[in-house]
Amino acid sequence: MRPSLVRLAVPAALLTVALAGCAPAPIYKATSNNAAVPPSQVAREPERYGSSDVIWGGRIVQVRNFADHSEVEVLAYPLDSSQRPKADDTGTGRFIAAMPGYVESLDFPAGSLLTVSGRLNGTRTGNVGQASYTFPLVSVNQSHVWTAKEMQGGHPNISFGVGVGVIR
């Protein structure tokens, strides 16, 4: 290889490695029984997915507490490589995350972003406003409510371009 190409290749390789290291690792490990489909697909064909494992996330709509469990209604979004919900993307349906015991609604506030790992447990018909809706049910094994700082983590403030920019 010519010395001039080596001088160009080394900085490019270092930059690639540095940027790849910025994204945090996924928080949950997918299983061999994992269904990589959105909630809207499961709602349409629940029998096809049975009791598959899922890793889903989205924005918390509401929390309902019952005698022996709690249910968190979630507006689903696709997940990034770190399993954070991409809330600026198009929603992929709603689902109900069923959690054992009591869930404090202050720890799971409406509007917060959440990722869950669990097993599909059928569907339930309910309403979104006045419209009838089929919610996939997920029996949650693990859950994580994302903080604003965690949502920003792994997004380097690096940009390339020519010109003047203003950051507010």
Describe the 3D structure.
20% of the residues lie in helices and 36% in strands. The chain starts with a helix and ends in a 16-residue tail after the last helix. It contains four helices and five strands. It has 168 residues and is an alpha+beta fold. A five-stranded mixed barrel has the order 1-2-3-5-4. It has a domain at 39-150: OB fold (Dihydrolipoamide Acetyltransferase, E2P). Residues 12-21 and 156-160 have low confidence and may be disordered. The protein is globular, with a radius of gyration of 20 Å.
Please summarize the sheet with the most strands. Answer: 5 strands, mixed, barrel
Mean pLDDT: 85
- Termini separation (Å)? 44 Å
How do the strands line up in the largest sheet?
1-2-3-5-4
Question: What percent of residues adopt helix (DSSP H or I)?
Answer: 10-25%
Sheet-strand content, in percent, reads: 35-45%
Supply the helix-strand structural class: alpha+beta
CATH topology heading of the domain at 39-150? OB fold (Dihydrolipoamide Acetyltransferase, E2P)
CATH class of the domain at 39-150: Mainly Beta
Give the number of helices: 4
Radius of gyration: 20 Å
Work out the number of β strands. 5
What sort of overall outline do the alpha carbons produce when their principal axes are compared?
Answer: globular
| Low-pLDDT regions | 12-21, 156-160
Q: Order of helices and strands, N to C? A: HHHEEEEEH
Give the second-level CATH assignment, the architecture of the domain at 39-150. Beta Barrel
The CATH homologous superfamily of the domain at 39-150 corresponds to: Nucleic acid-binding proteins
